[in-house]
Amino acid sequence: MADAAANPPSSSNPPGVAPAAPSAAMPSAASPPAPAAPPPPPPPEPWVVAVAALGAEPQPATQDGLAVFRVERDAWPAVARALRDDAALSFEMLLDVAGIDFPKRRPRFEVVYHLWSLRHNRVARVKVGVPEEDPTCPSVVDLWGTADWHERECFDLLGVKFTGHPDLRRILMPDDYPWHPLRKDFPVEGIDNSISYVRAGGVLMTRELDVDRPAGQDRTPVDLSHGDPAGFTDKAETEGEPPKAGGNGHP
């Protein structure tokens, strides 16, 4: 104890001077610099500018990277011909034609074309709006022969009539089928009716079409004088009625 009193702990502070306060915390590291602004988008390719000069409105790029254009329906024939015949564009091949129904949009329908330039190895997507009040679109069969069955399918399933088509008739549904199954107002479960490929005995009908009939209207009668196929019944006709002799709905 005497030694401890005689030899107090050493201190760097002189006698009578209070110890210095602990130094403040070191300042934090400098915050990282703000990220640089993204570079401006590259200018459009010359062929895109050339298509826009025809009256086609460029649209935002899509996930598949295709150039997309929107063309007014009345301008479509002239634009389509220039897309095929202009040497700087040369879209010699029509890959497909698709119809889309947007019930809440105006125009309601949209016909989408995919064009391929073999010479320049590029693909373009062209969209043409079609109003519900006048669901017609100029045919391009005279420019691209592959449009023939594609336009027929679009007419069959969506109800868009292609003016100038050389043989516009149904391609999947029976000829006398009055509805268009890919319209959004077509019931998901289908429509129970007497018009069917089976009911027609496996033969597509060839009568005059009422292509303006909307989905859900009364059924169009068909000639059933040949009777039903064996074992076939139509719930729409037998519901609420007593069974008939014969087992197939006919005596």
| Oligomer category | single chain
Which structural class do the helices and strands define? alpha/beta
CATH superfamily of the largest domain: NADH:ubiquinone oxidoreductase Nqo5 subunit
> Proportion of β residues?
15-25%
Number of domains: 2
Please tell me the CATH architecture of the largest domain by its name.
2-Layer Sandwich
Look up the CATH topology of the largest domain. Beta Polymerase, domain 2
Count of β-strands: 7
Describe the structure.
The chain has helices at residues 2-6, 46-53, 76-85, 147-158, 235-238; strands at 57-59, 67-71, 93-101, 109-117, 122-130, 136-138, 161-163. The protein has 251 residues and is an alpha/beta fold. The chain folds into 2 domains: 44-172, NADH:ubiquinone oxidoreductase Nqo5 subunit (Beta Polymerase, domain 2, 2-Layer Sandwich); 174-251, no CATH class. The protein has a 5-stranded mixed β-sheet with strand order 1-2-5-4-3. Strands 6-7 form a two-stranded parallel sheet. The radius of gyration is 37 Å and the shape is elongated. Mean pLDDT is 77; it is low at 197-211 and 214-251.
